[in-house]
Amino acid sequence: MNTVNILLIGDIVGKPGRAIIKNYLNEICKEYAVDCVIANCENAAGGMSITPEIAQELFSYGIHILTTGNHIFNNRTIIKLLESNNSILRPANFPAGVPGNGVTIIQIKNFNIAVVNLIGRINMEPVDCPFVAFNTLYDEIKQKCDVIIVDFHAEATSEKKAFGWFADGRASAVCGTHTHVQTADETILPQGTAYITDVGMTGPFDSVIGMDKESSIHNFIYHTRIKFKVAQNDPKLNAVLVTCNSQGRAVSITRIVKSYELSPSIS
Ligand SMILES: [Fe+2]
Ligand SMILES: [Fe+2]
Questions:
Q1: Structural domain tally of the chain?
Q2: Which of 1, 141, 226, 260 is least surrounded by CB atoms within 10 angstroms?
Q3: Which domain holds residue 133?
Q4: Mean pLDDT over all residues of the chain?
């Protein structure tokens, strides 16, 4: 069967997350016969942003497309790269006039793979409607691609679930990101869309969603806004492997969780 294997990596957090990609992405790609690697990088620089240098570093490790989310403009040096490189996306449903693109198409094997980055609105910024944005984008890209992968970066489970049903039969996969906690609800919806509420996080798990536990606990108790630091220990990769056929339907979705030992010398 003519299929393509797409790895979608959950939010890469700080140096520990980058070290996992640097040291183990090749091995993972061999193990799962990966053809295309998509990763959410919004937390890759210091846990709260992405810089042009770190984006280029992640591309150099073999990631084809970088997606982002609510932290994309925390470091505005990324704007130039968003405007000049279609392989790094910002959510498509930011208002008109925001720099960068929310969709790109990459050719891998004999597949034209569209990657769409959207962001939710529940307990997040009041951006444009992601459902309407997808309808518009879908009409623009459906003739140009075989496969459509959506990174739906959102807080609310309900919004992600609703979007999965909404895109069933049009997207090949709807993969949630942002919560940094992998959900165990991966499935293929009736019309052939692979779905998971959240892919999870690639970074230090001895933490509060990637951040050092003590500063997080302190901020919850005292609200004095101590600066968060990226945690260091218990590095894990969270990802999903989605296999799609030439009709753009998902034939499988597999959750991946891997634990690593990272000594400072290889990070
Ligand atoms: Fe994140
Ligand atoms: Fe986020």
A1: 1
A2: 1
A3: 3-204+235-258
A4: 96
